[in-house]
Design brief:
The chain is an all-alpha fold. About 70% of the residues lie in helices and about 0% in strands. It is elongated.
Length: about 160
């Protein structure tokens, strides 16, 4: 049985607010032109891998619970190119925020492990960090790749022909 300490409560709190910390990093990168290389980052290149990792199950959890209200800007109202690009930009913002939230939380977990020699807090933070930050990153990335593919198809169809 794990005895909860102040470290555990602090670790759980850090994971819960890590998305906000990640969003602040996103805003800093946006000001300093550091986003261009990060937005091209793809953790999983094979679309079938998302299925094997259970991202589809995580997606259903989000869609069928109040968690779907987390970011109302990520909703496609019309399937035109402008709307798809707007949603893709919102997805990128969310993806990067969760990605840096994951990194920040894991760094805190590593501090607990390496400097405070507290394995149980490290495990608690790491276990919570996966569904609260890593799976959202994978889901956003899967959706971003699908929307990008849809945008490219629409642009090819509606591209003017030059004679």
């Amino acid at each position: 049985m794990i005895k909860f300490t102040i470290g555990h409560i602090f670790g759980i709190s850090c994971v819960c607010v890590s998305g906000l910390a990640g969003f602040l990093v996103f805003l800093l990168l946006k000001k300093g032109n550091g986003l261009s290389s990060i937005t091209k980052l793809i953790l999983i290149k094979n679309p079938n891998s998302y299925k094997y990792l259970g991202v589809g199950i995580f997606k259903q959890l989000i869609v069928k619970t109040p968690l779907r209200l987390g970011n109302p800007k990520i909703k496609i109202n019309r399937f035109n190119i402008k709307e798809l690009k707007r949603v893709r930009n919102e997805i990128i913002k969310s993806e990067i925020s969760h990605f840096f939230g994951f990194i920040i939380s894991q760094l805190i977990a590593l501090v607990y492990l390496m400097f405070l020699n507290n394995v149980s807090v490290f495990i608690t933070i790491s276990v919570l960090n996966v569904p609260m930050n890593m799976y959202p990153v994978l889901l956003q990335q899967m959706n971003r790749l699908r929307i990008t593919e849809l945008i490219e198809k629409r642009e090819r169809v509606y591209q003017p022909v030059n004679d």
